[in-house]
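Q: Predict the bound structure with 6-O-phosphono-alpha-D-glucopyranose.
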Amino acid sequence: MTELSKFGLRVFFDDATQELTFGEGVVCGGGSSKHLQKMKGLLYRDSAAENCDELCYVFCHDIYREEDRHLFEKRQYANGITVLMPGTMGGECRKNSGHYHGYVPGHICTFPEVYEVLTGEAVFLLQESRNFDHADEELKVETLRAVFLKAGEKIIVPPFCGHCAINVGEGPMAFGNLAAPSPLLYAPIQQRHGLGVYVLNIQGRIVFVYNSHYKDLPQLTIVQAHENPALGITFGKSVYESFVSSPERFNFLDEPEQYQEEIEHMLG
Ligand SMILES: O=P(O)(O)OC[C@H]1O[C@H](O)[C@H](O)[C@@H](O)[C@@H]1O
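A: Predicted complex:
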């Protein structure tokens, strides 16, 4: 049993049953899981997904202390945890499906999302594109970035960035997400068999390989994640604690327009 203490609530990952469990007073709105077959069409080597039913990840949503429920419900923020299992899928590190956020009416940029690593070692891929919702056009990728994060570290996925989480460590990798509701667009990534790079583990080394289904990809850059206490992003304090103590710091989640530059400055 691993306690995910970085989350700021009593949450555990049971390695034996591969389930998330919750301490007294912590509520969870439900869960789901994804097996390898469902990753077909997204992998470096798709044959790895054939006839293989191994578990890739589990996801639980709407996790909070009962007394904090009103704070999340008022803003309709989703607060979840995903656990990516260890191991590779045909040499590729375990990852989730990846998606873009679609536009929310009344907004000129798409909504960001906060990710927080709870245990293990992660890479988050951020693939910026403005024409992600034009299915008939070649996807124009403006930037392609990878961020390595350890437990306690956090990022804000900037507007317009398709994103995918990858487990690059040896054990399970768990991460929390906090976001305002917006459409989730999987198709732009599915149509191209994944994001612009695959993350492989070759004899213990992490290797990035460009995805040949894309034309004219920019060069991948490895960026660092920086804190921004004004936006509630501090590596020594959980997102949960930051949010319940100062919900207004997270206004950028559903009013991103005036925060775009500040969010960009957190990656560099
Ligand atoms: O990867 P999916 O199948 O979308 O399912 C699970 C996902 O759901 C949420 O939307 C989170 O933002 C993701 O980080 C999480 O991994």
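A: The chain has one domain: 2-265.
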